[in-house]
Design a protein that fits this description.
The complex is a heterodimer of chains A (411) and B (218). With 411 residues, chain A is an alpha/beta fold. Chain A has one domain: Spore Coat Polysaccharide Biosynthesis Protein SpsA, Chain A, CATH 3.90.550.10. Chain A is built from twelve helices and eight strands. Chain A has helices at residues 3-29, 58-66, 87-96, 113-121, 171-191, 208-213, 224-234, 255-275, 284-328, 345-368, 376-392, 394-405, and strands at 45-51, 73-80, 101-105, 128-131, 137-138, 155-161, 204-207, 238-248. Chain A has an eight-stranded mixed β-sheet, sandwiched between helices. In chain A, strand 1, helix 2 (58-66) and strand 2 (73-80) form a beta-alpha-beta unit. Chain A starts with a helix and ends in a 6-residue tail after the last helix. Helices cover 64% and strands 9% of the residues of chain B. In chain B, strands 2-1-3-4 form a four-stranded mixed β-sheet. In chain B, strand 1 (132-137), helix 4 (144-163) and strand 2 (168-173) form a beta-alpha-beta unit. In chain B, 32% of the residues are buried. Classes of the chains: A alpha/beta (411), B alpha+beta (218). Chains A and B meet through helix 1, helix 9 and helix 10 of A and helix 1, helix 2 and helix 4 of B.
């Protein structure tokens, strides 16, 4: 067998395994996807919002939190991380009308969200502590759809489902909207095997005692939400995701901020893998599945990209050289046989993966009530997401790896 | 503890993935089988035809019969082999999971070598002036420069064949391990591929010599 075919088959097998795994989890749990346990007690909760130059969006976030239907939301603590705009004044003014809101300011800018979050956590006295990004708007029932998961005494953290609010702002935002939908859905599926490995920034809730036990967020980590989740999982605590707790957020609308955000996410993932590498294949599902799953996903993504680039570059170089030589020696540049196509094993797997992705897409649209109906236009967006966005995304990993190697951990 | 026995999803997924994967392999083998069956069928016909051709040659030479019919047949037969070679090349370009095509390729190369030898004999015995262009190339090369050179030569020869439909074009791979071809290469002092032999005399070893082909034809 040719090495290229063998490589392709290995990649396809891993992809088929992951597809089968998620499909089986979906089939087994399709009735429970949107379930949220009814809280056995009225857990007290405080929400901390780190704020750095968020004057324009934070009022929306605060209004959404004030509008929550959960009765025991004690405090909303806004931590101003020494903003350079008028955020602090705006929030203070807003807080005067709402006694539930407490505004604090860090003694000096901490330089990352983790520092501001940890500072705010010092003021929390409730059983549960939640964190929300200033540009994220939780739906009215978001908190009440999350707290019931804490009925399980081993539950350390519960995260939410994050649709993109500004999906019509640009094509990039529209594509990210699809991406967030997939991410949220697959995160929920991982919940069924106790493997939710990220508790997102838009809204996640932690049991305060466990939050204190892990000493809060790691301020050296560039993605503190991944790190704290892995910290809790590595101590055999559970994490969960509530697909019916919706928290809309703003996605970057332009390439550069999107690239920076994704590079940061990638860098944070690499930091977390490095920090917990000793637990590979050692610590229950965290070591046996979560760590290898994340690591293999990264390696496979990069490898598949490089493999595709290699094949494409090779074809282009051969075509270019042939064209140059043909031109130089007066030979035809191509003949009709070059355009003939004969189906091979490549096609079968690609068709299976494509059909399954499409089936999953329509199922997720329906299940999550994502506010999008299937249409030709959305079908092409989905194609773009799967083929172009998915193929080019690994470029982000190269920058993340570079930053990791040179230890560039700036936010 | 994992909830609701979902832990079984890990091995269940492995079974499903193996089933789909195996189905894919079967589909791949099916595609290859159907192509190999097609090529094998062509090959059988060609093998029969070359035996027939050989016998006809013997009859013509032994009994001093008219060569014309033999010459006409050799052109038709060579053209058929050439068309089959193009088909084989197309199939070669699709991904393969078994190496059966390589074996078939080797058999075809042997057949083409035999055809070439038969045509040489006919030309000598019948004083025939038919043009033969034998293209010796590497089948297994992956070296980019060599691949592009071969592609250029191949395209050039395709055009030459279109311009000279009566010429016999025989592409033969030199790296499939055919002993007799190696001996013939030595006879013509051909040590490198790709090379082109025109009418058993002119040799083209480089792209810069391609323009000489027309002048070497009758």
């Amino acid at each position: 067998m040719e090495p290229i075919v063998a490589t392709y088959l290995i990649i396809m097998f891993i992809a088929l395994y992951m597809l089968s795994f998620f499909t089986i989890l979906t089939i087994k749990n399709h009735k429970k996807l949107l379930d949220a346990p009814i809280p056995k007690k009225n857990y007290s909760i405080s929400i901390v919002i780190p704020c750095y130059n968020e004057g324009s969006s934070i009022e929306g976030n605060l209004n959404a939190l004030l509008d929550q239907d959960y009765p025991n939301l004690k405090k909303i603590i806004v931590v101003d991380d020494c903003s350079t705009d008028d955020s602090f004044k705006t929030v203070q003014k807003f807080a005067k009308k709402h006694p539930q809101i407490m505004v604090v300011q860090t003694p000096k800018n901490t330089g990352n969200a983790a520092g501001a979050k940890n500072y705010g956590a010092k003021f929390v006295k409730t059983e549960l502590i939640g964190f929300s990004d200033a540009d994220s708007y939780p739906a009215k029932n978001a908190i009440s759809r999350m707290v019931g998961f804490f009925n399980d005494e081993n539950m350390s953290a519960v995260t939410s489902f994050v649709p993109v609010r500004n999906k019509n702002a640009s094509y990039l935002a529209k594509i990210q909207s699809l991406e967030y939908m997939f991410m949220g859905f697959f995160r929920k599926l991982l919940d069924f095997v106790d493997s939710v490995y990220v508790t997102n920034g838009p809204l996640s809730i932690y049991r305060k005692t466990i939050f204190d036990e892990v000493k809060g967020f790691d301020e050296k980590s560039i993605t503190e939400d991944i790190e704290i989740t892995w910290n809790m999982l590595s101590r055999d605590y559970k994490t969960a995701m509530s697909l019916s707790a919706r928290v809309s957020t703003e996605a970057p609308t332009k390439i550069k901020p999107w690239f920076n955000q994704r590079t940061r996410w990638g860098l944070g993932g690499l930091q977390a893998i490095s920090k917990y590498k000793r637990m590979f294949f050692k610590k229950g599902l965290f070591g046996a599945f979560v760590l290898p799953f994340v690591a293999i996903s990264i390696v496979l993504s990069i490898f598949t990209f490089m493999f595709s680039v290699y094949l494409l570059a090779k074809s282009l170089v051969v075509a270019g050289l042939t064209a140059a030589k043909s031109t130089a020696y007066d030979a035809p540049i191509f003949n009709f046989a070059d355009f003939s196509y004969h189906p091979s094993i490549l096609i079968f797997y690609l068709v299976v993966l494509f059909m399954a992705s499409m089936g999953m897409y329509f199922y997720i649209l329906k299940k999550t009530k994502y506010g999008e109906k299937a249409s030709i236009k959305r079908f092409f967006n989905m194609l773009f997401y799967l083929i172009v966005y998915g193929t080019l995304y690994p470029i982000v990993w190269f920058k993340s790896i570079y930053r990791y190697i040179v230890k560039d951990y700036k936010w | 503890m994992v909830k609701n026995k979902n832990i079984h999803a890990f091995w269940q997924a492995l079974i499903v993935a193996l089933l789909i994967f195996w189905s894919g392999i079967l589909v791949g083998v099916f595609f290859e089988d159907s192509r190999i069956a097609e090529i094998t069928s062509f090959y059988s016909d060609s093998e029969t035809a070359i035996s027939d051709f050989e016998m006809a040659s013997n009859l013509v030479f032994n009994e001093n019969l008219d060569c014309q019919r033999l010459n006409d047949e050799s052109k038709i037969f060579a053209d058929r082999i050439y068309e089959e070679a193009k088909k084989l090349e197309q199939y070669d370009n699709s991904n393969k999971i078994t190496d059966r095509m390589l074996h078939l390729h080797k058999r075809y190369d042997l057949l083409r070598t035999m055809l070439w030898q038969k045509i040489i004999e006919n030309k000598q015995r019948c004083n025939e002036s038919v043009d033969t262009i034998v293209y010796l190339y590497k089948y297994l090369t992956i070296e980019i420069g060599e691949v592009s050179t071969q592609k250029t030569m191949s395209n050039y020869l395709t055009e030459i064949k279109e311009q000279n439909p009566d010429a016999i074009l025989i592409p033969i791979a030199t790296d499939t391990g055919i002993l007799s071809l190696g001996i013939i290469q030595e006879r013509y002092d051909i040590t490198e591929s790709p090379s082109i032999i025109i009418n058993e005399q002119g040799k083209i070893r480089d792209l810069s010599e391609l323009s000489n082909i027309q002048s070497l034809l009758n």
